[in-house]
Design brief:
With about 425 residues, this protein is mainly alpha-helical. It contains 15 helices and five strands. The strands form two sheets. The chain has a three-stranded antiparallel beta sheet with strand order 3-4-5. A two-stranded antiparallel sheet has the order 1-2. Strand 1 and strand 2 form a beta hairpin. Helix 6 runs parallel beside helix 9. The radius of gyration is 29 Å and the shape is globular.
Length: about 425
């Protein structure tokens, strides 16, 4: 005798019975007669639903606002390098160059820098810590090689570049990154003796002194100043006794003062900075500064418009390198200069925050490296902006991420990539992973 089939349950009863089992599934999909288990992998009541499809979860692996600010500065710099250099071929000195010569080389340097930055990002911070002494040794070797005639390339009386064909490499830029990494590694190794002056500070002072002598032989006092600030900043942030730090600062300031007093052309620069409009300086050491100030004056509030600068037409020397900000001030006015300063302030502050976060996570080397990059970008942009505005004596330092210069762009991007790597590892640790 056959059993009678169970009567079909009403649809409302079936719905009520299935509700506790739906859990994280899409109720609308169930009501429509479909199943959401193909859309969302879940585990309910110790049962793993088969046939699920993996759904990619969007996670921010690194600081994207930081990346976009860097991209904005690079793009703005590329446009301004083109604007500032487009008239240079009219000068007999650059008569054989095309009007796009400098912007194309700058663009190539940016592409090389982006590739190098992507490679640098792949290395974990423990690998950078191991490589730090070797990078420092390589930087010392290149700083020696650049002084050898036939290897080093001289421009305007300074021997600072090594020709690599597609670009001229400046070892002092590598020196900034190498000293930064070496100082951070050094402080981690010397953490136990950081309160003892000779054990903690003297060896680092000797290393920076050797780099300084090589840089002053080029001469490149600007790069030496940046390296000293980076090294001192990392020593201070690493926990060196405050009294020792201020003693070192006083010695460094005294040393720079003696270098200026002992060099006639450096003294002339200081006097020209104090009064660039005098008859003695207006057509000499103060010529560059006076025309930079004229450019800012012409820009007024909103600028004369992109491409409308007059000072870049052979009046302002090095308009596409050290004095790019003057062209920005003339073409974008006070508004453009304030926006640019704001971007650099935000960038520096964000990098320092990433460094503090790493130290809080007990990643001391990574934190000191990130903060060293913040000091590098912040101090160099401060000096360049101050020089362009006449607030500081003229010094040959480029505007980070913006001014024309292959090796500067390359090493700036590598440094930013290392900071992004620090942030990436911070986020991994905060999610419970390992760096």
């Amino acid at each position: 005798m056959k059993k009678k089939p169970a009567p079909a349950k009403p649809w409302l009863q079936r719905l009520r019975e299935s509700l506790p089992q739906l859990g994280g599934r899409d109720l609308a999909g169930a009501l429509a007669g479909g199943s959401s288990r193909d859309d969302l992998p879940v585990r309910l009541s110790n049962r793993t639903y088969a046939g699920t499809r993996n759904v990619a979860v969007r996670e921010l692996g690194f600081d994207q606002p930081l990346l976009w600010v860097v991209v904005a500065l690079l793009a703005w710099g590329l446009v301004m390098v083109y604007s500032a250099s487009i008239a240079l071929p009219d000068n007999p000195r650059f008569a054989n160059y095309a009007h796009t010569h400098f912007v194309l080389r700058h663009g190539i340097s940016m592409v090389i820098g982006v590739i190098a930055a992507m490679v640098a990002f792949q290395f974990p911070m423990r690998s950078w810590e191991k490589m730090a002494p070797w990078l420092f040794a390589a930087a010392l070797l290149l700083l020696v090689l650049v002084l050898i005639p036939g290897i080093g390339k001289g421009v305007n009386g300074a021997r600072r570049w090594i020709s690599l064909g597609i670009m001229n490499f400046q070892p002092s830029e590598l020196g900034k990154l190498a000293v930064l990494l070496y100082a951070a590694s050094y402080m981690v190794r010397k953490m136990e003796v950081k309160e003892r002056f000779f054990h903690a500070v003297a060896p680092m002072a000797v290393a920076v002194g050797v780099v300084g002598m090589l840089l002053l032989a080029e001469p490149d006092m600007g790069a030496f100043m940046v390296i000293v600030v980076i090294a001192m900043g990392i020593l201070f942030l690493g926990g060196v006794n405050a009294r020792m730090f201020f003693l070192i600062a006083a010695v460094v300031v005294g040393a720079f003062a003696l270098m200026i007093m002992a060099s006639e052309w450096r003294r002339d620069r200081i006097f020209a900075y104090l009064d660039p409009w005098s008859v003695e300086h207006a057509l000499g050491k103060g010529y560059q500064l006076s025309h930079s100030l004229i450019a800012f004056g012409r820009g007024e509030i909103f600028g004369v418009g992109l491409g409308g600068s007059v000072e870049k037409l052979h009046w302002l020397p090095e308009a596409h390198t050290d004095f790019l900000l003057a062209v920005i001030g003339e073409e974008f006015g006070l508004v453009g200069v304030v926006v640019l300063i704001g971007l650099f302030l935000w960038l520096t502050r964000r990098i320092m925050h990433i460094g503090r976060q790493a130290i809080a996570l007990d990643q001391v080397f990574a934190g000191l490296v990130a903060q060293g990059v913040g000091l590098w970008v912040g101090f160099q942009s401060f000096i360049n902006i101050g020089v362009n505005l006449g607030a500081l004596p003229t010094k040959g330092l480029t505007l980070p991420l913006m001014s024309y210069g292959g090796s500067a762009i390359l090493l700036n991007l590598v440094a930013i990539a290392i900071v992004l790597r620090v942030d990436y590892e911070n986020r991994q640790m905060m999610r419970g992973g390992r760096s």
